[in-house]
């Protein structure tokens, strides 16, 4: 959701409800001046921040246990070359990804001169993410992983029930890709996934896992974590009512829409996602100084 002065990166809402809802009713959740996404002087300056932020996102996923061997990927659209995106190199643990890894264009060609030493590309990552980025100019960051509860829920072939306040963030903003065809290895499969996602921010890939796509890294990280937890909650709730003859109580469409307008928009995702990065920076003692345009040491917990 960051911006630079001679253009805009991520100012179009990736939700089902259009760009007008980027901020939605999020102002109702606070009193006082709200923090806003950073503004950059140039695409080059923004690129350095995004590369650092993406590496942080992988470390957050690694800390939460979203890794599964070599599976999973997060991408962010490059601000200097919008036809390219940054992605993790194949075979590298989430927690070890560095800001220099890995630039690839929408045709699957690794940009060797601008990438890190490991230039091995996960073909499935390219097929899924290139299709999403191409179909959705508003999507600047997309994440797919084989996290446990999302993977379990993806076997059910259904959308998330809106049974909690947090699940309201996905009200009318989720999809199911119901065609499992093995490991994604061709462009047509990637295109079908992008078509199933449509203009929504989250999708369940049948027998596979979760996909979240938004306009910034922070929102993608937050909504992925929230979706994974919502899957866990629903699996637990459904198990609790099984055999009792009862059903979980669903939130009404009106209330779900109202809550969505506050927590389901891109600003809400960006703001909520800040907390994950704040904790990581406090634990690692490294943060990106926007004034200096580079990482600096900060006080550790």
Describe the model:
The structure is a single chain. The protein has about 300 residues and is of the alpha+beta class. Helices cover about 35% and strands about 15% of the residues. The protein is built from 7 helices and 12 strands. The protein has helices at about 45-65, 125-135, 150-155, 185-195, 215-240, 255-265, 265-285; strands spanning about 5, 5-10, 40, 75, 85, 105, 140-145, 175, 200-205, 210-215, 285-290, 295. It has a 7-stranded mixed sheet, sandwiched between helices. Strands 2-1-3 form a 3-stranded mixed sheet. Strands 11-12 form a two-stranded antiparallel ribbon. A hairpin with a 4-residue loop joins strand 11 (about 285-290) and strand 12 (about 295). Helix 2 crosses helix 4 and helix 5 (about 215-240) packs across helix 7 (about 265-285). The longest helix is centred in the last third of the chain and has 25 residues, at about 215-240. The two termini are about 30 Å apart. Residues about 5-20 have low confidence and may be disordered.
What structural keywords apply?
301 residues; alpha+beta; 7-stranded mixed β-sheet; 3-stranded mixed β-sheet; 7 helices; 35% helix
What is the mean predicted local confidence, pLDDT?
A: 89
List low-confidence stretches. Answer: 5-20
Report the count of strand segments. 12
Radius of gyration: 19 Å
Number of helices: 7
Question: For the largest beta sheet, what order do the strands appear in spatially?
Answer: 6-5-4-7-10-9-8
Percentage of residues in helical conformation:
25-40%
Spell the H/E element sequence: EEEHEEEHEHEHEEHHHEE
Tell me which oligomeric state these chains represent.
single chain
Question: Termini distance?
Answer: 28 Å
> Main β-sheet, in a few words?
7 strands, mixed
What share of the residues does DSSP label as strand, in percent? 5-15%
- Classify the secondary structure makeup into a structural class: alpha+beta
Principal-axes geometry comes out as globular
